[in-house]
């Protein structure tokens, strides 16, 4: 679709800034270049983070989860993120090899505020780092070390609007993973079989 002649498109920073008011003092003051103890407490309580990376093939955002505190605070400028077993696509790791810039978004169930961390990442297989990230007796494949550049919390509006943490009685009617694979492969993959085997397969390969 060609939007080149759309008069409603925003083309300049001046146009963009005119759409919004001045940045509030709290929004400026909350950003720091290190991990304040209050921010460290949020990371230690979080069981879920999204890792954003960029590389030659474009952008990627990958979910990571484990018991709270799985992203470890080495010091006020360094985080440690274990790389668990997965599908072996290693999209995030490939990107980090090409471009070390990363962004993380931490979520805590029941808490409206999220935490954003921007920095630069490196990949390590140092035995002492793998050991400290062991889970269920299994070492991660590697660990991602994040050198922190910017940290700030995001206000609760997105969580409130989405009602993300509200109790839901019914599971949404969405296609299963097997149904998606069967549709994408013109039934080369048996979706029903994939779904039946998924719980046992995932439990066996969790770590």
UniProtKB/TrEMBL annotation:
Domain called Pyridoxamine 5'-phosphate oxidase N-terminal: residue spans: 36-155
**NCBIfam families, sorted:** PPOX_FMN_DR2398
Q: Which organism is it from?
A: Roseateles toxinivorans
What the entry lists under SUPFAM superfamilies is as follows:
FMN-binding split barrel
Q: What is this protein called?
A: Pyridoxamine 5'-phosphate oxidase N-terminal domain-containing protein
Tell me the domain of life: Bacteria
The UniProt entry, under Pfam families, shows: PNPOx_N (PF01243)
**Membrane-spanning regions, if any?**
none
What is the residue range of the signal peptide feature?
Answer: none
């Amino acid at each position: 679709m060609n939007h080149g002649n759309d008069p409603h498109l925003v083309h300049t920073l001046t146009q963009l800034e005119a759409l919004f008011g001045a940045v509030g003092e709290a929004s400026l003051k909350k950003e720091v270049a290190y991990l304040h103890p209050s921010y460290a407490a949020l990371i230690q309580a979080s069981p879920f983070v999204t890792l954003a990376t960029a590389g030659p093939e474009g952008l990627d955002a990958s979910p990571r989860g484990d018991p709270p505190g799985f992203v470890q605070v080495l010091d006020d400028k360094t985080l440690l993120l274990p790389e668990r077993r997965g599908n072996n696509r290693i999209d995030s790791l490939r990107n980090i090899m090409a471009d070390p810039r990363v962004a993380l978004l931490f979520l805590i169930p029941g808490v409206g505020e999220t935490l954003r961390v921007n920095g630069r990442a490196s990949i390590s297989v140092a035995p002492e780092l793998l050991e400290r990230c062991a889970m269920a007796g299994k070492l991660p494949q590697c660990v991602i070390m994040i050198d922190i550049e910017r940290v700030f919390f995001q206000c609760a509006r997105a969580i409130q609007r989405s009602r993300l943490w509200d109790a839901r009685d019914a599971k949404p009617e969405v296609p299963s993973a097997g149904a998606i694979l069967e549709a994408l492969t013109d039934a080369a993959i048996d979706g029903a079989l994939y779904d039946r085997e998924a719980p046992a397969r995932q439990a066996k390969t969790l770590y």
